[in-house]
Amino acid sequence: MTTLDQTLAARYARIALGHVGREYPHKLDHVMEDDADVLSPRTLHPCFFGSYDWHSCVHGWWTLLTLRRRFPEMEEAAQIAALAEQTFTADNLATELAYAQRPASRGFERPYGWGWLLYLHHEAARHGEPWAERIEPLARHFAAAMRDYLAILTYPITVGTHYNTAFALVLAREWAEARDAELLAAIDSWSMQAFADRTDYRGWEPGGDEFLSPALIAALLLSRVMRPERFADWFDAFLPPDRIEEIFTPATVSDRSDGKVAHLDGLNLSRAWCLRTIADALAPHHRADGLRDHADRHLQAALPHVAGDYMGEHWLASFALLALLPSRHP
C-alpha cells in the first residue's frame, strides 16, 4: 500500500499551492439580490477565492496545513506558512464571516463547505499560529448553522455528492468533540435516528458523478457514534459481506476533463478512506482484513490521477490525504 512520505507530501503541497490562490476558472455559489452583488470571487471571498470553488479552496487549505504539520522539514512548509499568514488575516476573515451571515447565504455551501471549514479550523488549531483564532468566529458561525440545520432536517440526504449529510457530520463531529458539546450531542442523536435502524443496504452505487459512497460514508459516521461492539453488529446487518463484493469495485473514469465524471476518481479515494477507517473500527473483527484489501484496490486505482486535468487536480489531493492519513486524529 502507498504510504504518505515527505516526497508525496511535497508533491501534494505543490499541487495545492498552485490552486488555492488561483482565482479563475471559478464556480460561484452566490445568491445576488441586486446589481451591487455582482462581484468577483476574490472580492466576495478574500480567503477562499481559489481552487475553482469555495469549498475546494477550504479543503485545499486543510491539505496544506495538514501537510505542513506532518512534514515541517519539507521545503514547501515555509511557503505554506507564509501564504497562510497573508491569507488568514482578521480583515479577510471578517469579510468571509459577513458573507456567511447574509440572510441570502443561509444555504451557502450547506453542508459540505460547512464541514470542511470546521475541519480546517480543527487543523489550524494544531499549529501554534494565530490562524485558528482568526478563523474561529467563522467556524462558530457554521457550527451554530449546523445545529440549526439538523433541527429541521427530517431525512438524511444520501446522494454521493456535496449535499450528503453524513460526510459533513463526520468532519463536523471531529471539530465538535473538544469544542462544542451541544453540536456533538446533536450530531450523535441525529445520526442514530437517521441510520441506526437501517439494514440490508440495497442502493445502486456508484452514480455517474458521485465522489462519495452513500453507504460507506453513513457507516463511517456510525463507526464514530456507536460503541465498537454495537457498530460491528450494525455493520454486519447493514452491509453483509456479499454486498461488499457486489457493490464496491473501483469505479472507471471515462473522461477526466469533465468535472462531474472526474468525481469518480474522488469516489475511489473516499471509498478507500471509508473502508480503511471502518476496518480499524472493526478490528479485530473478522471482516477487517477484507475491507482493507478493498481499500487498497480503490486507492491504487485513483492515486495516479490526483494530478493532471484541473477539473480533478483542484480537489483530489485532499481526498488522497484522507485516504492515506491515520483513521483517527490524523
Low-confidence stretches: none
How many strand segments? 0
Specify the number of helices: 16
Helical residue percent band: 55-70%
**Outline type:** globular
Note the gap between the termini: 18 Å
| Order of SSEs | HHHHHHHHHHHHHHHH
Question: Averaging pLDDT over every residue, what do you get?
Answer: 97
The major sheet is characterized as:
none
Strand content: under 5%
Q: Structural class from helices and strands? A: mainly alpha
- Calculate Rg over CA atoms: 19 Å
Distinctive features:
330 residues, mainly alpha, 16 helices, 0% strand
Structure, briefly:
The protein has 330 residues and is an all-alpha fold. It has 16 helices and no strands.
